[in-house]
Specification:
single chain; alpha/beta
Length: 173
């Protein structure tokens, strides 16, 4: 009888920041009260410059998962985005259980930094072209009680270091 490998616990914020440090990626993190929606996070804009993100964790009928990272006020047409991202069908939101299993985060804390927990490459990361015009991108560091600022090229470098080749596509209206 063989023991099934224990599933690794999701990485912590400290482990994420140490990983960025190990890659030589400059970053700053600001602690704040937990925010669950874009509307709740608006008060932080004056304190944290750069592009602020909204993340949509979606799946197609073949259970291919995607994380769409877009500018916080952008809109994504979920009826047509599948044709842009290469999904097999129209997409729907992924279940919270899969969000935790694949990205190690809960709803409200969804972030491109979740790639550090996607060790089996279950998720395709899509960065919106408009967001990537920003010099600095702001994402939650695996929890919604802080915001980590990182250069746009460094975000791509981080994703590649985790084994993901992000797609930079125009997915917003």
């Amino acid at each position: 009888m063989t023991d099934a490998p224990a599933s690794a616990a999701p990485k912590t914020r400290q482990e994420l920041l140490a990983y960025l440090d190990g890659l030589g990626i400059s970053h700053t993190t600001k602690d704040h009260a937990p925010v669950f929606t874009v509307a709740e996070s608006v008060s932080l804009r004056d304190e944290i410059p750069g592009g602020h993100t909204k993340n949509l964790f979606v799946k197609d009928k073949k259970d291919q998962f995607f994380l769409l990272t877009v500018e916080e006020n952008a809109s994504v047409d979920l009826k047509t985005v599948h044709t842009i991202i290469g999904a097999a069908s129209k997409v729907s939101f992924g279940k919270p259980e899969k969000l935790m299993e694949y990205l190690g985060v809960i709803p409200g804390s969804v972030t491109a930094f979740g790639a550090i927990n996607d060790v089996h490459n279950n998720v395709t990361f899509v960065l919106d072209e408009d967001l990537m015009k920003e010099e600095v991108i702001n994402c939650h560091p695996l929890s919604n009680d802080a915001t980590t600022s990182i250069g746009r090229e460094d975000l791509i470098r981080f994703l590649e270091a985790t084994g993901h080749t992000p797609l930079v596509l125009k997915v917003t209206a």
